[in-house]
Amino acid sequence: MTIPDTSTAVSERPAGASTAPRPFLDVRDLRVHFPTDDGLVKSVDGLSFQLEKGRTLGIVGESGSGKSVTSLGIMGLHTTGQYGRRKARISGEIWLDGTELLSAGPEHVRGLRGRRMAMIFQDPLSALHPYYTIGRQIVEAYRIHHDVDRKTARKRAVEMLDRVGIPQPDKRVDAYPHEFSGGMRQRAMIAMSLVNNPELLIADEPTTALDVTVQAQILDLVLDLQKEFGSAVIVITHDLGVVAELADDILVMYAGRCVERGPAERVFHEPRHPYTWGLLGSMPRLDREQRDRLVPVDGSPPSLINLPSGCAFNPRCPYADVPKDDVTRTIRPEPTEVGDRHWAACHLTREQRERIWTEEIAPRL
Amino acid sequence: MTAGRRGKSRRPVLRSGPLAVLTYLIRRLFAAAVMLVVIIMVVFGIFFLVPKWTGVDIAASFVGKQADPAAVEAVREKLGLSEPIHIQAWEFFKGIFAGRTYSTGGDVVHCSAPCFGYSFKSEQAVWPVLTDRFPVTLGLALGAAVLWLVFGVAAGVLSALKRGSLWDRGAMVAALAGVSLPIYFTGMLSLATFAFGLKWLDAQYVPFGRDPGGWFGGMILPWITLAFLYAAMYARITRATMMEVLGEDYIRTARAKGLPERTVIGKHAMRSTMTPILTMLGMDLGALIGGAILTESTFNLPGLGQAVLNAIRNQDLPIILGVVLITSLSVLLANLLVDVLYAVIDPRVRLA
């Protein structure tokens, strides 16, 4: 098992026009729009973020905020195999280790899929083919990118199953997905994703379909493997608690845009966007007094066809009237730096935010 | 069938490999044997018991409408119709496996095993009639099945992949025509055009044993006509199933692995798409082998379907009974075959 060396990845890159080396994963102004009969659905609308090898980024948001669309966009899965459906319109730039993926040919991106970037899906039962054994599916994933015979690939599959903690891997390799428990299935899925030592791993709600008792094991496993392989990891979840523990950075998405981004510690303990406050308030926590009720975020996510003008969050924001001149309803806020490597897209001034956070929000949490 | 796939049922039991397939097979074979006995009894009941209740004299109907009472009495004695019903049933059942002798006085008719009855109208045992005609029908059904599988499934897959395109619309209109147009129309039309008009093909049935080339030439039009109807149905089912399968999570996983699209479609998607098609094929082949009445009569093929049509015209009950039994048997066997193939294709079936 070769472990990619993180230190060489940066120095290998040829010196380009810009002096600062490009991050390992650099997403710039990503837009994914779906034309439908009702109008253009802007699932992702101007998203930018960077991620280095060995680091974990947590993308948080509610259903329909564009988390999964973003991950499928990076993998190039919106443009492949969309038979007869109207194709997604994707613009912006996705740089993976110096290669721009959106302008690269589909065949080139296919060669990267599964080899340099891999994905773990939410429900391992439906994400694994029911008619093929676990081993066969892992062998297939390995052999498509490695010119080895079946025996070697099978050995590798058993090795991977063992590494992700599946007991009796030499026997279980011949079992079918329905013969595994939920947690074991997700372990097998992880083994399949990691079989080619990908440098970028995207985990799309990896624990949502699992029992609570298994969730922590799976997350620990992902983190362990990241340390071992030094890959860049994106964990997508609607559960802020999940990413708070394992991510280095957190990106909070709302209606296809980033509303707050920064180091996990800062976003979790000093959030600077009202939506993040809402997420924290609606999150059950063991360290909280039991008599305190959870506070849901009022209202429901906006239609992605007709976004509210100005700040997309303004109809649900309790502080929409704090900034002057109705600015929250007319001008879309751009991300501004609110701390060290910490951005928020909100019209509230620094003073207003800090006052509301310390006086109103923090005491309730 | 998709309901089971989506369900999050968890079966921790580990039972895979050849042993599971074998136990499944034995279970299925046993069930088929039981089913066979039940079918024979039910068919017997329909032909002998139901008329008794409704007051129809079977002996009279076996002989014909203008039969003299003496002949009717003779048949009644020969068939043992005056015996109690369970004796009759046993005799009938025994006859299938051990042969049977119909006799009264000096008139002795022997019907050797497997005895499916004796036609007093055409003065012959039923079984040789069936075995004579069976190969014709089998050849028709199998040849057509190959055609409709290849063209129907291919058209369906292409339609699913080019959803909404001109090809898709054209193929689906053709499929609608295939499903709606009756065989005696398309059959006559193809005969008039290709056999009598253009004179490309012969409209004559030649037994395979006599002249394989002539047999093949004579079967082309019947095959195409029959396959047109079924290909239309198969194209529609294939298209719908393929479209559903393409939306499955495991297809997305296959792409995420970096598999080329031809593997994703040709291997991962096709495997799931073929499951319901296989079920249909089993049912359709089973029913067709019992006689494709319309096709056989349109093209004058001496198969089981034509035999049963003639028998119905002549009120020749034993022949009808024999063909009904053969049809039931072939459906039963086809189902057994499908069940076994199913277990090979879908590992989850072995547990059920």
UniProtKB/TrEMBL annotation, chain A:
Source organism superkingdom: Bacteria
Biased composition (Polar residues): 1-10
SMART domains from the UniProt entry: AAA
Gene Ontology BP terms: peptide transport
Main location: membrane
Region Disordered: start-end pairs: 1-22
Record's bilayer topology term: Peripheral membrane protein
Keyword Membrane attached: yes
Keywords: ATP-binding, Cell membrane, Membrane, Nucleotide-binding, Transport
CDD domains from the UniProt entry: ABC_NikE_OppD_transporters
Protein's name according to its UniProt entry: Dipeptide/oligopeptide/nickel ABC transporter ATP-binding protein
Species of origin: Embleya hyalina
UniProtKB/TrEMBL annotation, chain B:
Main location per the UniProt record: membrane
CDD domains per record: TM_PBP2 (cd06261)
Localization in the cell: Cell membrane
Keywords: Cell membrane, Membrane, Transmembrane, Transmembrane helix, Transport
Residue stretches spanning the membrane: 29-50, 136-161, 173-195, 215-235, 277-299, 319-345
Membrane topology (UniProt): Multi-pass membrane protein
Any single GO CC term annotated in Swiss-Prot or TrEMBL for this entry: plasma membrane
Pfam families for the chain: BPD_transp_1 (PF00528), BPD_transp_1_N (PF19300)
Start and end residues of each ABC transmembrane type-1 domain: 134-342
PROSITE patterns associated with the record: ABC_TM1 (PS50928)
One example of a Gene Ontology biological process annotation: transmembrane transport
Protein family according to the UniProt entry: Belongs to the binding-protein-dependent transport system permease family.
Protein name: ABC transporter permease
Biological source species: Embleya hyalina
